[in-house]
Amino acid sequence: MDPIQQLVDFTRHYYQTNDFIPLHAPQFGDAEKQAVMDTLESTFVSSVGRYVDEFEQQISQFTGSAGAVATVNGTAALHAALYASGVRQGDMVITQALSFVATANVIHHMGATPAFVDISPSGFGLCPDALAAFLDEHGQLRDGACYHKTSHQRIGAVVPMHTFGHPADMDGLLRVCQQWHIPLVEDAAESLGSWYQGHHTGTLGDFGALSFNGNKIITTGGGGMVLTRTAGAQQQVKHLTTTAKVPHPYEFFHDQAGFNYRMPNLNAALGCGQMTRLNDYLKAKRALAEHYQQLFAGTEYQFIQEPENCRSNYWLNGIICPDKACRDKLLTITNDQGVMTRPVWQLMHRLPMYQDCIRGTLPTAERAAERIVNLPSSPLTTKEA
Ligand SMILES: *Cc1c(COP(=O)(O)O)cnc(C)c1O
């Protein structure tokens, strides 16, 4: 039977519906309702309240990070993380060519310039070999910092992204970053519940950023979190994201140009409710990934599996089509039948605002961009799958 029709039939059967099947839909229950109602009744809906602290503690405990600071969204978390790691106006920041646009936008809006490097064929995170090659060609160590040879911009950070929840090759990336004295900040927006050799993604670099947008594995409506390696760094980021106000009973004194990036208590309440479901979601996502793997075994479509020694959250399932024509055919047929599938993001250097950015050679990213399709990935926890 045709694998495309098999995919449509499988999702209809799996989700037990003839309605439109989205890529990822959030689910809420009593835990969320109670926490949100409790927040309304307390009137502490805004930037102060117990759910913010509770949510931060829960994330910190779950990920094993020394610190966690809740923010208004994942983009803000990444901005605060990059700022805390020392990135400043005029710097160059290296990231991967295949990512959601927020990664590059944050770099751009800091007055820094993104530079794009290729991804690994396994997991589609930033490739350590490609990073090393890029730095061999463009990097220069001076006074314990790394500079771009011709533009003389300081290379302020390297930002890998754990694509679809699959951990990037952190050992390799950390090795290259240490050699070149460049801070490493993880865009872990998609990878809550993903582990690299027993370490949670976002806790291996200098900082990590999570997102709780509506389409992520758990949601706070909008929200994000900075993960830090030390309690001191947590205080630094908390200070930075809360207008850098020096604690005082009534005086307003701010000791640096801070951000107002704090997550409202109302959103944190939703997050605390969602945390009660995270382990069920992870189980359900893994079960669904196994179904997809079996479905595409022996076909010309290759299911995207977690890299070796990693445990992925399988946030967004994907397959690699044999070529662009097959991909386009699959996209048309499935979407016409109300089963949502989607191509991966445009590579960053193909977007008008980033077309002139410096980049390495991008063979893997170019291949992936033409062939990847993401599949319906909502976790099924209410019915037996
Ligand atoms: C979702 C996402 C972000 C941004 O998170 P928001 O909460 O939507 O601001 C950043 N990077 C990647 C890779 C993402 O998938």
Care to give the gist of this entry?
By secondary structure, the protein is of the alpha+beta class. It folds into two domains: 3-26 and 278-374, Aspartate Aminotransferase, domain 1 (Alpha-Beta Complex); 30-275, Aspartate Aminotransferase, domain 2 (3-Layer(aba) Sandwich).
Give the domain tally: 2
CATH class of the largest domain: Alpha Beta
Q: How is the largest sheet built, in terms of strand order?
A: 1-11-10-7
The fold-level CATH name of the largest domain is Aspartate Aminotransferase, domain 2
* Counted beta strands: 16
CATH homologous superfamily identity of the largest domain? Type I PLP-dependent aspartate aminotransferase-like (Major domain)
* Relative strand content: 5-15%
Q: What molecules are bound to this protein?
A: pyridoxal-5'-phosphate
Note the run of SSEs as H and E. HHHEHEHEHEEEHEEEEEHHHEEEHEHE
Count of helical regions: 12
Poorly predicted ranges: none
Please describe what this structure looks like.
The protein is of the alpha+beta class and 385 residues long. The chain folds into two domains: 3-26 and 278-374, Aspartate Aminotransferase, domain 1 (Alpha-Beta Complex); 30-275, 3-Layer(aba) Sandwich (Aspartate Aminotransferase, domain 2). The protein has helices spanning 3-15, 30-42, 50-63, 74-84, 102-109, 128-138, 170-180, 231-241, 265-275, 278-296, 324-336, 363-371, and strands at residues 67-71, 92-96, 113-117, 139-142, 145-148, 155-159, 185-187, 195-196, 199-200, 207-211, 224-228, 302-303, 310-311, 318-320, 342-343, 372-374. Strands 1-11-10-7 form a four-stranded mixed β-sheet, with helices on both faces. A four-stranded antiparallel β-sheet has the order 12-14-16-15. Helix 3 (50-63) packs across helix 9, helix 4 crosses helix 5 and helix 6 (128-138) packs parallel to helix 7 (170-180). The protein is globular. It starts with a helix and ends in an 11-residue tail after the last strand. The model has no long low-confidence stretch (mean pLDDT 96). The modification N6-(pyridoxal phosphate)lysine is found at residue 216. Belongs to the DegT/DnrJ/EryC1 family. One of its GO terms (molecular function) is pyridoxal phosphate binding. InterPro entries: DegT/StrS_aminotransferase, LegC-like, PyrdxlP-dep_Trfase, PyrdxlP-dep_Trfase_major, PyrdxlP-dep_Trfase_small. The active site is at residue 216.
